[in-house]
Amino acid sequence: MGLGTDAKVAFRACTIASDSKFVGQRFADLEESLAEPGIPAFVDAVRRDGHIVTPDPDGPIQGGDVLAIVAAREAFLRREADLGAEVDDRELLASPLEIVDIVITNKTVAGKTLQQIDATHDHQGPGVVLRKLIRQGHEMPFTLGTTVDRGDVLQVIGATRDVERAIEVLGYADRFGGRTGAVFMGLGILAGIVVGAFSILISGVPLSLTTSAAAFVAGLLGGYLRAVNRTFGRIPESTLWAFNNMGLTIFIAVVGISTGPGFLNGLKEAGMSLFLWGMFVTVTPLIVAILAGKYVFKFHPGVLLGACAGARTNTAALGAVQDVAQSNVPALGYTITYAVGNILLIFWGVVIVLMLR
Predict the structure, then answer these.
(1) Within a 13 Å sphere around the CA of 193, how many CA atoms are in the beta-carbon half?
(2) Mean of per-residue pLDDT scores for the chain
(3) Phi-psi bin for 87: left (phi > 0), alpha (psi -120 to 50), beta?
(4) What pTM was computed for the model?
(5) What CATH code is assigned to 97-173?
(6) What CATH superfamily is the domain 9-93?
(7) Closest to 159 in 3D by CA, of 204, 116, 118, 129
(8) How confident is the model at residue 257 (pLDDT cuts 50, 70, 90)?
(9) Are strands 86-87 and 9-15 parallel, antiparallel or unpaired?
(10) Which ranges in the chain are annotated with CATH 3.30.70.1450?
């Protein structure tokens, strides 16, 4: 497949001079000569005798050929004298290059590094260039040693034929054009409402998921199904951004409005001791978690802080950590602890009531 791992590529048309060293060589030899570490090169199309043709990798290059080449910018500079003059051949450069999000669903690819995937399928041609790695909705840094898993999204660029070959190797092409899977979302919300309406009595105390918790669990299940088989439940990034930001703002506003009177009444009745003990109870578990994560479990600092933010079910804290770190790495530790924290937050109040009884 020839999976490159850099977005610093260029698409240019060059005229091969009659005295160029590439004359008589195969197109595959030219592509190999222009390849940089981690960045494949390929000839997408050729203008020969006034006609645009698809190059045969084993075919010879002729003097006067105009080649549409995709390669690293450094490769063009390094081979500028051999490639000849660059020309503005818009028809040739209008060749069908694609930028496609490919979701990894192939079990044989999951768990491998980008370099292992490249080495396994490199015999299939020069291939595509990886522009972005998206994991759990966040763009992540990557190298040839980065391991990918099912549900990861690789945004690649290349000729249509090479992109289609990469799709066959990796999984599923997400070409939904910004449409939202409203039916899937609606069914998830409906399932949450129905399940949350049921409750059971334990020692006279009703135990229920509640509508909000059931909808949350339905969202977790739907998100998992979407991750392993991204053919349904589509939600564009712009929609997710709106949900996250509007939802967080409304949540904070509602919490402030609903708890403000109780907070002031508590201060009047119990004094500052209630406030100070509240700070102690809130901060102590986080300090213990940070120390345990750093010295016992040896977590990456960014992942550890993201996990602590998720344990507190605090999206604002995650945003603050990401802003300071200027990275999306904390999101890796946030998701699981956020889900567990929400579920425990819902049930633990009932458990405490039962224990006190």
Answers:
(1) 6
(2) 82
(3) beta
(4) 0.54
(5) 3.30.70.1450
(6) Regulator of K+ conductance, C-terminal domain (3.30.70.1450)
(7) 129
(8) confident
(9) antiparallel
(10) 9-93, 97-173
